Amino acid sequence: MDSHKLRKMQSRKSHSWWWDSHISPKNSKWLAENLEEMDKSVKLMLKLIEDEGDSFAKKAEMYYERRPELVSRVEEFYRMYRSLAERYDNVTGELRKNIPSNLQSQNSGNGSDYGSEPMTPSPEQTPERKPARRKSFHRAAGFDVFLGSGGGSSDLSRKCSSGGSSSSSSDSGSESDNDASVTHPGPENGNGQHDELQHRILKLEEELVIANEKLRASEEEIRRLKSEVETAGSDNELLCSRILELEEAFFVSNKRLHTSEEEAVRMKNESEMLCDTISGLEGELVYVREKLQASEEEVVILRVELEKNRASEEQVLELEARISVLESEILDHQRTIEELTMSIKQSSLENAELEAAVLGHKTTIDGLTAEVNRISERFSEDIQDVEAETTDCKHAIEELKRAISNVCAKHSQEITELEAVISESTNACVILEAKAKQLEMENTEKDKRVEELNRNLDALMTERDELRARAESLQCMELHLEQLHREHARLISEAEEARKACEGMRGRVAELEETVSDGAEGKREAIRQLCMSLEHYRDGYRRLCQAIVNKRTAVIAS
């Protein structure tokens, strides 16, 4: 058992360092750097997503500015995920190409040793080997060596039994056949345990295939999410451009509204000024009319006085001059009245035009106000759509992040499980291979000794036949008995010695058969040790599965 433990430790040291350097985050600098970089990228992306602006315009501007950075982060996540998946595929591919190739080369060496043996199994035993080969065709690559070595030992036991049956017609041959039939069921039990172990390994390989399919599905999901993010980004760009256009139109409308309001105020002020001017002119017109009426009354009075006072020419001249002056003033006042009337008419026309312009500007202001309200409603709706798209993008990015973390965790867990299983399987194969080689060497030596004993036995049998022929010739020569009495006595003594030697050789053959049976007992003991080793490996595999289940529950709980 100590030698088995030592071999197990050596094989574990020889195979575990390669896995640790490629898979373990503590020993793989590349994997640790990628995981650290992914953590940093996740934190930066969360920071970019969680930052919010004060207003809708600020939010839209922040989203428009940070969208390329978010897209670059998603592309970086995808690149890192692809690199991890490719590294995982490369590691598993190298494992399948590396470890089974060494074991198959050792298996081919063992097969050449078997091919160099001169003896072949009997025709009755060849049909039993064909199903075994057909059965091992579907087995895992790492256990073909072990099953091949087991088959070789059973073939050697069959060769021993065939050699014993062909060399004798006595009871010793039947005893060797019985020993061979007793030792035969041992490898069948070992093969049954191997089949059970191999069934578990095939189950693990199927789980590996399922994990690869999940990996491909995750890659397709990531591509789909990336395309959705790009589509949402393009839609958001269109929405942002539309928002900018609406903001510009809103600004232009506000400017036009402000200009129209200023124009309306200016026209209103001008209208009020014109109204004041018209009222002033009307008052002045009333004053002039009153003055004109007073002048006319004065002219009438003067004419009356002129008619009364025709006596004085000076007064007449003075009155005529005064009348002419008053008439000129009346004409001036009439012209002033006409001018004021024209000014009033012109002011009335301008006032009407200003009122029409004010009404037009009011209509324009109402239309601009309605357009501003409509643009504000569309702007608020577009802002809500942008916020909804932003929320969807956030959810998509969170789902993508969760999918990436789940896939990374599953990959690391599957790699750890495969590492443990393959390490244990490799150690078991190395131990069983060493035992099979040792049994093979012992069986080869025993076969050589049995062949030598069979050759000696054949020589003794031929010598016995010669002696029998001589005895028959002696019986035929009874007529010459007296002449050949001494020779006959000598031949009888030689025959007696040959018989004794034959009995001695038979005893030697019996001893050798006992030695062969002891060798078969040794093989049975070796098979029992192999069964114990398989039981130990099975127990270790159960503990490993339990540890993996506990670790998985602990990871899920955390």
UniProtKB/TrEMBL annotation:
Residues 15-95 form the NAB domain. Residues 97-135, 152-195 are annotated as: Disordered. GO terms for molecular function: actin binding. The keyword Coiled coil applies. Keywords: Coiled coil. The keyword ATP-binding does not apply. Residues 101-111, 159-181 have a biased composition (Low complexity). It comes from the Eukaryota. Residues 278-357, 383-515 form a coiled coil. PANTHER family: PROTEIN NETWORKED 4A. Belongs to the NET family. This is NAB domain-containing protein. The lineage of its organism: Eukaryota, Viridiplantae, Streptophyta, Embryophyta, Tracheophyta.
